[in-house]
Amino acid sequence: MESYDALLASITPATGETRTILDPATGEVVGQAPVQTIEDLEQAIAAAAEAQPAWAAAGHDARSAALLRAADAVERSAEELAQLLSREQGKPLNGPNARFEVGACAAWLRTAATTVLDPETVVNDGTTHAELHYRPIGVVGAIGPWNWPMMITIWQVAPALRMGNTAVVKPSKMTPLSVLALIKVLNEELPDGILHAVSGDRAVGARLAEHPAIGKIMFTGSTAAGREIIRSSADTIKRLTLELGGNDAGIVLPDADPKTIAQDLFWGAFINTGQTCAALKRLYVHDTIYDAVCDELTAVAQAMPMGVGLDENNVLGPLQNKAQYDVVAGLVESAKASGARILTGGNPDPDQPGYFYPTTLVADIDNTNPLVTEEQFGPALPIIRYTTVDEAVEMANALDVGLGASVWSADPAAAREVAARLQAGTVWINKHGAVDPRIPFGGAKQSGYGLEFGTEGLKALGVPQVING
Prior knowledge:
The protein is of the alpha/beta class. 40% of the residues lie in helices and 21% in strands. The longest helix has 20 residues, at 38-57.
C-alpha cells in the first residue's frame, strides 16, 4: 500500500507532454496526466499482443488466481484510490460514490474470477457429440467514460483478462488519473504485459477502435460516440460491446406507497449526482398519488447534502465538467420557460466555485419537453403525470433509447406485468440502477448491444468454438 502522494507520483510522467487535471468541486490542481500519442498506443498494443499467447495458455485457474490477487491489491489501496477519484471526478467519498466505486472494483474482479464457464455439451445422442467452448479473442481495447471511470474499467478488463485476452485501456481525458492509478495497482499483481493504459486524445481512441491487432472493443459512453466506434471498427469486423446513453423511465403505479419508495426513487435518479447511464431520468407517476410522490421526493432531496467530495458529510457532488453543467442548466431553463413547476433546486449559485448544480425536481412538465426527451445526465429529474398505465408505458417506450427502466408498486406481480411491456435491457422492480456482477446487463434500441457481467459477460469476451465429433 502506498500513500496518496506516492500513488499520484507513481503515475505522474517525468517527461513528455502533460495535461493539468483540476478538481471539479474546487478548481484546484489534482495532478498532471500524460498526453500520450498514437506511437505510445502502437507500443502498448504490440506488447499486449506479445504477452497474450502465454496468458491464454496459463488457463482459467491461473488467470482467476491473478484476478483475485488484483482484487486484494485494490483493497490494500482502497482509500488512496477513493481520495484520487473524489478529487478528479468530484464524487463524494461517502454514499454510493467514491469508496463505493472502489469497493465495486474489487467485487467485480472477484466475480469475474470465480464465475464458472464450463464447456457446454449441446448434442450427445449416441451418434453426435458437440461441445461449445469459448476461446480467447486476443487483444481487447477498452474505452471508458468519466462518470464511473474506475468501476467501468474493471467491468471491461476483468472478464477480458479472465477469458485469456490481454487489454489496452484508453481512459477518458476528463478522468485519466483515476484509471492510471487503478491500472498501476492492478499491475502490482498481474503478469507483465497483459494490461496497459494509454492516456491520449480522441485520435488515440479512434486508432484503438480501428487497429487491426485489436479483436474486440469494449465501450461505454454516448450513443453518438458509439456510432463512431462502429464505423471505425467496421473494416476489421471487430466484436463490440457497446453500453451507450440511456434516458431511463420509471413508472409509479397507483398502489405504490409514496413515503416507502421515496428514498429509493431518489437514489435511482441521483446516484453519482445523476451522472450515470442507467440512472432514473424521467419519472411517470399516476395522477392519484402524484402530489404525494412529489412531496415525499422533495423532502428526501432537500435533506441530501451536496458539496466538496472530501467532506465526509456530503453525498452529492458537482458535475464533472463545465460542458455537462451547461447541458443540465440549459435543460432546466427550458423547463422553466415552458411553465413547469420547480419543486426544489433550479437556482445555482453563480458565486460558488466548482460545477455544482443543485438537486432539482421538476413537476407538471410536458412529456415532450427537452428535459424529458433528452438525457440530462445530471441532478435534475422531471416528474410527469399520467392517468392510465397504457399511457405511461407508451410514453416510457417513445424514445429511441432503452438501457434501463423501473416499475414501482406494492404488488410485485402487477409490476412484472408492466415491466414485460417496457423496451429496456433491464427493468427493475421497486429499485432502479442496481447492477450486480452476477446478472447480465446491456441495452436495447440505441442504448447499445452486447451483455456484460456474469456468465454471459464472460462469453462476450470469447470466440465461440464448436467441437463436433
